[in-house]
Amino acid sequence: MTDDDGFPTYYEYALAHRCSTCGAETGTVCDAPAKNQALQKLDDVRALTGNEPIDHNLLHRLHTTRQDAGGRHRSRDIGKAPWPEDRVPGQRYDTLDQARKPRTVR
Length: 106
Prior knowledge:
The protein has about 110 residues and is mainly alpha-helical. About 35% of the residues lie in helices and about 0% in strands.
């Protein structure tokens, strides 16, 4: 899944990081019962008024610290990519699928 600019979504970038708030590993959603309860209450109010539940933004279920880390990662990838008019069609400029290199101690 990509946004209009050809980069993965903010949600995918956020999931690529471990959550420092709840400890959720990469690729798994946050353990955020308060956030889930708030979204459920919103759906309950909509049901009481005769409306269908809405599709919630997946980012709302993640902790803010994890969202911020994903946003910084995405911004760095976009900043390092060439200008849109200089990009090669089909070429990826994000770093999500690249294996992390181990740090070397000097």
